[in-house]
From TrEMBL:
Protein name: Multiple inositol polyphosphate phosphatase 1
Any one Gene Ontology cellular component term annotated for this protein: membrane
Signal sequence interval, chain numbering: 1-30
Family membership noted in the UniProt record: Belongs to the histidine acid phosphatase family. MINPP1 subfamily.
Catalytic activity: 1D-myo-inositol hexakisphosphate + H2O = 1D-myo-inositol 1,2,4,5,6-pentakisphosphate + phosphate; 1D-myo-inositol 1,2,5,6-tetrakisphosphate + H2O = 1D-myo-inositol 1,2,6-trisphosphate + phosphate; 1D-myo-inositol 1,2,4,5,6-pentakisphosphate + H2O = 1D-myo-inositol 1,2,5,6-tetrakisphosphate + phosphate; (2R)-2,3-bisphosphoglycerate + H2O = (2R)-2-phosphoglycerate + phosphate
An example Gene Ontology molecular-function term: bisphosphoglycerate 3-phosphatase activity
Localisation per UniProt entry: Membrane
Hydrolase found in the keyword field: yes
EC code: 3.1.3.62, 3.1.3.80
The species this protein was found in: Streptomyces caeruleatus
Keywords in alphabetical order: Hydrolase, Membrane, Signal
UniProt key word Signal: yes
Pfam families: His_Phos_2
Amino acid sequence: MRRLPPALTPALALGLAALLATAPAAPAGAATNTATRDSYGTKATYAPGQNARTYQRPPAGFTPVFTENVSRHGSRAATDGEDADLVLALWKKAGAAGRLTAKGRAFGPKAQALQKAMSTVGYGDLSGRGKREIHDTAVRTQRRLPGLFKKIAGEKEKIDVVSSGQGRAVDSANLYAAGLAEADPALKPLIGPTRTDVDLLYFHKAAGGAAYRDYIANDQRLASTLKSITDQPATHRAARDVLKKLFKGDFVDQLSDADRVAAATAVYNLYAIAPAMSDERPGGKGWGMERFLSKRDAAWFGYLSDVEDFYEKGPGFAGSDITYKMADVLLDDFFKQVEAKRAGTSDLGAELRFTHAEEIIPLAALMGLPGSTKGATAERPYTYADNAWRGASVAPLGSNVQWDVFRKAGTGGKADTYLVRMLYNEKETAFKAGCHPIAKNSAFYDLDELERCFGRTNSAS
């Protein structure tokens, strides 16, 4: 989390005041309350966005012929132990000085146990919950499209599985493939070994992300905007509040402003990752990290986490596509796979891709998915008050975009018709404004219409 001197515009000050006014309203114990979930940012755990029984049926005569997805890996341990190391070092120092509060005395053993569990799982690796999330998503995919997978098995079509090559994405790919095979054993010999495509699924670190990396490292507008939002009185107030739950006030007062923010951020980060580690908690009762910071403070640090992701990976600055243009390669692959199916040049029944938040978030912005449609201006920086973007909704752990493709055979010499339905986190989702479904409120879009809407040069229309 970045920190620099306060430089609040009136619009930003108004938006931040709105956040502070609404954050405490979350009811106690409401783990699924929207405000509480938002406080976890992109560390929020996965849940399907729609009951499968409520999906629209395809129009008469259309049958499923192909499905494809891109999925973030499932819930995981923290990528390293730095947060726990930092705050536990402070906790031990305060303990030696007799400056722990009652909550502070309880905090240390819980943080140590959580750190040990993450170390045992492996930093950055899938947790038990993450494995279940991915497996269960695969099973739901098979149950959603039983006719398609029966067709795939009957016609011996292939299922291609590809990942970024990073461990948790590879593991997610393999678990998803195993889940499909478990749901329909006839699919097992048709599922290819997981292959790696860095350019497609780790593009922020590949050649196609060079301009983006320069933006992250050198763009002064980005740096000054993040500083102005992060390092201001509300952050220092929240940091002090978090630490005073654990340590006596005189101990907290001895720390520098920067050290207070760093330590409070570490406490928040342990809070944010704890639900992802729920399976590793003995008894499955949760880690109880929410006891150590108020909903108001969790909401504030969650907002600051979202600020970084919004400006560094998401819609970013209005009028600039530097954060998401590089996702073109992934959207292009979605279209190419469907177009190959229509052309009869593909022997695939499914294309399954596994990646990271750094790819899901830009793709959502590029496609104009819900919450990812509005950039921020210098006059109106990103706030919860006037922008719908939330990391917990856009790219939670296990998040995914899926296209299901349906075909109706042509008659009287007419070509076959192909329809596409998009699911975003397993919720039927409209394509961006300007794309017209086959009927009002329908989840189905003619492929020709999508090609027109997204400016595909090889449109068949």
